[in-house]
Design a protein that fits this description.
The protein is an alpha+beta fold. Helix content is 19%, strand content 35%.
Length: 685
Amino acid sequence: MTGVDEGVTDPYLWLEEVTSERALDWARAHNEVVLERFTASERFSGLESRILDMLDTDTRIAYPGRRGRWLYNYWRDGAHPKGLWRRTTFAEYTRDEPDWEVLIDLDALAEAEGENWVWGGAAVLRPEQQRALISLSRGGADAKVVREFDIEAKVFIEPENGGFLLPEAKSEIRWIDIDTVYVGTDFGPGALTDSGYPRIAKRWKRGTPLTDAETVFEGDATDVAVSAGYDRTPGYERHFVGRATDFFNEEVYLLESDGTLRHLDVPTDASESWYKDWLLVQLKSPWELDGVTHPSGALIAIDFERFLSGARDFDEIFTPDSHTALHGYGWTENHLLLITLQDVQTKLHVLTPGPDGWTREVLADTPPMATTSVMNLDPLEGGDEFMLSTSGFTSPTTLLSSSVSGHTEVLKREPEFFDAAGVQTEQFFARSDDGTMIPYFVLRHGDRQGSPGPTVMSGYGGFEVSRTPAYSGAAGMGWLERGGTWVMTNIRGGGEYGPEWHTSAQKANRHKVYEDFSSIARDLVARGITTHDQLGAVGGSNGGLLMGVMLTRYPELFGAIVCQVPLLDMKRYHLLLAGASWVAEYGDPEKPQEWEYIARYSPYQNTDPEGEYPPILLTTSTRDDRVHPGHARKMAALLESQGHPIWYHENIEGGHGGAADNKQSAFQAALIYEFFTRTLIEKDA
């Protein structure tokens, strides 16, 4: 290692002081350099304006969240940059210009209260839908203030009038009934885990102080988080608690009326859910029961009460294969809908339980090179109706309404935001270092075939996050229209081929993520799609760590890199903000045997003063309280001290997404594509 050695005092540790004037002055000085270099041209302002117009336009689909007869939507546009929370009926939503009932105008609220509020979500109490718990953050942070809202009167209910209120924290709060909630928050010393999430779950009654809330469950400080909830399905009401012992393992218990806990005896790394009589378990590792081994990635089902009585004769209702994985599922009133990925392309099926077992049929045809999602399932009040959302790299989203065995009709279509004429989508496979074939998608103009050109590849590779085809107007405007080629990779660490696609690249096997991405980079050159000095790479968060490794381990493969809200100092990541919750993914640097393999790739510890690195743009947010901005700050300072070509920009707000509103999002996107244009096309950065 030639970067900052763990045995030496880190000379840039002061940059971890998030809001110190010294650190902020350092960030502002670097921001000024970036602004002067990349944002002063008419090309930049033109692209930024086009992206902002796209984000603000009323022609975008207002995606609804269904709660019985109401469709809720959070909407931001040029007139409402912070946004409107609103609702309408389904009949009204089908109109070209629905009449929305505005519930909260966040711009007006922020101005009236003198706070930089960013929307964090709403939990509506059902079935009456007269109250909601509203989450708001300052500047886009994960930590949020939670306030009770009267939907009918359109006012917040203050604590002195009996309203629920939680101060800023990374809280969990869920309705039980109109006068009772389950809550986990910062109750005081010892109330949070080492990861900064709730350690204690309590039952809190209206009109009583939070300090008097009744504890129903406590976890350990080393856990990631605990939570409690209530299933209000009529006739099947169930209280439950969960204890996440790490990022991928959780113990779940039913909470009986006398306060005792009834453990659900399923693998802790599995995902369990229930609906009425059925318990479903999605396996992340093989599970042997009564001589039958259900494979990793399978979905199995059993009558819930029989399971609680000791039965273990599950039905295997989805079985993965080498090309197909389960991507998601959800219930209508009478059916179970499955979304699968077959070589990273979606297929939809409907399963129906009956006295003779489960039947399975194709739900709907799905277009190739696209992603189709099932949304707005409401088994309690919506019958067997649902919505479909389909989108491809060059095909804007279409929203459809349908029902099982019913008619499907188009509800909304988004317009095209860039000129996709002549752009073709192809899927290729690259052979990684261990022989595994890794898929990736290529978007390029037809006349580019046969000649290499400027190319940007994106990657993530972690936490079982699957990356599937989707329309990106910003990438189209900022890169494809400029003649560039865009690549989306499906490297290991994700979930595109089921749980083992992820688990095979955890901890000591993390190197496979980086071998996969670098193998695709070489494959792009071997196929004549690009050259190494024309190839850029971009990734954020865990994908930012991927970019840091590409810079320090594979610099010869790239002409430019953009590294967003990244993890980079893997010696200290577990000590910063939510970092402790990711030890199950990366390993524990405090353990010598685990630090040994982390140390081989940790970017901050592996920079080379004598190496030749491509130019890199590092971006982060001061208000990111998930991945500490110190990672990007320190890496920029270290690389700069070693004479490497770096650019650094820090948004003073914006949270982990890097932007708090549409204007900031447009700026961030335009900056990235301007950087790649300068470095890969014009070669003058």
